[in-house]
Amino acid sequence: MISTSDLKKGVTIEFEGNPCTILDWQHVKIGRGGAIVRMKLRNLRSGSTVDRTCDAGEKFKRLYLDRSNVTYQYNDGDLYHFMDTSTYEDIVLTEAQLGDAKDYLIDNLELDIIRYNEEPISVELPEKLVLKITYTEPGFKGDTATGGSKPATTETGLIVQVPLFVTADDSIRVNTSTGQYVERV
Fold it and tell me: Which parts of the sequence belong to the Translation elongation factor P/YeiP central domain (predicted)?
């Protein structure tokens, strides 16, 4: 069991019967009443994000999730197929289970799949990923005094703000947790 005083970002708990990851939390002391904890949780089964409030000192069951290495194969509508690299098993996840991770999936990408009670529920992307730019407007030298940025569409359909010197067919490194441009490769 884990108390509200031990909560941290990224910890997985059982909340209302579902495995949830804590995205954010805040301990609030209200005037005359007792302290409360506001949590922003991501349901790992459905992919939905909810805000909940509970009393300080409340306890939750801490969950430990299994991870295994998989390779992304292809998508078929809203179903995404992965292959377990050790057992060659085909694992299928829905678009809702993947959430924003679907915007970073390229063929043969190696990543970790997260399982809860042997049920695949989500994936964990590498921290940074190299994507190819398929379209961006040309940037002209001298457009701004401080640098500036422009939108660019990647091979996966993700739109990233990039510096003006980046052109179509360039490869860029993107931070998968924030979705921001890191560098040109």
Answer: 67-121
Provide DSSP, 93-160: EEHHHHGGGGGG--TT-EEEEEEETTEEEEEE--SEEEEEEEEE----TTS-SS--EEEEEETTS-EE
Interatomic CA distance for residues 73 and 81, integer angstroms: 6
For the question of whether the overall pTM of this predicted structure is more than 0.90, the answer is no
Per the structure, the complete domain to which residue 17 belongs is given by 2-62
44 and 14 share one domain: yes
Read off the pLDDT of residues 14-68 as tens digits, 9 standing for 90 and up. 988 888 888 889 988 888 888 899 999 988 877 778 999 998 889 999 988 888 9
Q: Both tokens of residue 101?
A: 């991770």
Cα separation, 42 vs 123, in Å, equals: 13
Other CB atoms within 10 Å distance of the CB of residue 52: 13
Asked if residue 102 and residue 76 are part of one domain, the reply reads: yes
Whether residues 120 and 70 fall in one domain:
yes
